[in-house]
Structure formats: C-alpha cells, structure tokens
Amino acid sequence: MKVLAIDTSTFVMGIAVVDGQVVKGEIITNLKKNHSIRVMPAIESLLQECDMSPKEIERIVVAKGPGSYTGVRIGVTIAKTLAWTLGISLIGVSSLEAMAASAKYFQGLVVPLMDARRGQIYTGLYKAEGGNIQSIVADQVILATDWANELKAYDEPILLVGNDSSLHEASFIQTLNRAVQVASFTLHNPRPSELAWLGMHREPEDIHTFVPNYIRLAEAEANWLARQQEGTEC
C-alpha cells in the first residue's frame, strides 16, 4: 500500500511517502514558518523525488491533533481535500501517538507532551513493547504538575518525548526522581513515516464527518461560548 502521511500539528512539518514496508521519502522541518504555504509544495516535491504521481497514492494518514489549532486545521484540511479529490481512504492518528511512536523501542512508558500554556500540557500515556506502541491513558490536557503526580502510580521507567519537554521536565524530575528520563533531542521531532506506519492498517474515516481532535476549545471560542451563556442566563 502506498501511503502519504501529513503532520502539521506543531512547528514540525512532516511529510512521508511509504510504499508497503519501504519509506520512499520523508521531509521533516522544525521551523516557525507558515505551514499553509509550505505543505503542498513539499508534498509535490517529495512525490516527484519518489517518482510517484498523486494517483498512485492509496491512503492518506494525517495527524489529527492535539496541537496548534491552526497547524492541526491545515493538515486535516489538506488531507481531507486530497483524499476526496483522489477518491482514496483517509486515516486520522493522534499527534501525541505519532510522537510517542518515535520511542517505541523504549522499555517502559512513553509520555509525549506539547506545551498548552499556563502550566498545562497536551499529553497521554503510551506503552512501548516489542516495537509497538499502545495507549494506556487517553490524550488529555492537564497541568504538568498534576500529571507528574498521577504518574507516580506507575512502577515503570518513564520517557518524556517532544520538543516542549524541556519546558516541563523540572516538574517531572522533581516528582518522579530517577523514574523519569528525557528522550534524546533526536527523538523529539515526530516522524511522518511512523505516522504512516500507525495508520496503515486502521479502518478508514468518513471524509465528510472527520474533524480534528483539539481536546479543548481555542481560547477565543471558549470566551465566545461563555458570553453566549451569560446572555442566555440574563
């Protein structure tokens, strides 16, 4: 199966073309640049380098969030448009799961994380075993200090993964001591080829109803809903 994987849920832009068990090509950048003007040229360039036409792609896998609201929206919109135009299947995979997959050979628990501001993080808990990754605790948004305390219940080594790990590692190290490690910086960028691998054997999504998983509303949306609620109660 020929798979195109797209991840724009953080500053990292990842595009991969995978053909069966072969990674034909991969583009990864970690830059504070606008994904909206870079993704389609990157896809076109990668397909050309791989001597592959868009019509040969059989499945699109996209990182569906959480992450940057704008970034997630860009990736999902492009993935849905391409899947609909090409008449192929679409699969959405947790952005955190894709991040955790980079550490799938770690002997213990993997904690991918993204900064969510005000001391909060987007995170989940994954078990790395035999080259596979399994969700143990569903993705959530939580205070880093609260999450560190919850992780004390697990009697296994824990690995923090993600470019925002350095912002919160002190909270985890202080609470968990030697039970926690921070992954090598070479593992922090999520690999789009891992994203393709995760979505390769999953059931397709309905293209029309597929939506990103933001986990929480954007602040502007939350404030607007709060004002509407206040107006209703008056």
From TrEMBL:
<protein>
    <submittedName>
        <fullName>tRNA threonylcarbamoyladenosine biosynthesis protein TsaB</fullName>
    </submittedName>
</protein>
<dbReference type="Pfam" id="PF00814">
    <property type="entry name" value="TsaD"/>
</dbReference>
<dbReference type="InterPro" id="IPR000905">
    <property type="entry name" value="Gcp-like_dom"/>
</dbReference>
<feature type="domain" description="Gcp-like">
    <location>
        <begin position="32"/>
        <end position="224"/>
    </location>
</feature>
<dbReference type="InterPro" id="IPR022496">
    <property type="entry name" value="T6A_TsaB"/>
</dbReference>
<dbReference type="GO" id="GO:0005829">
    <property type="term" value="C:cytosol"/>
</dbReference>
<dbReference type="InterPro" id="IPR043129">
    <property type="entry name" value="ATPase_NBD"/>
</dbReference>
<dbReference type="GO" id="GO:0002949">
    <property type="term" value="P:tRNA threonylcarbamoyladenosine modification"/>
</dbReference>
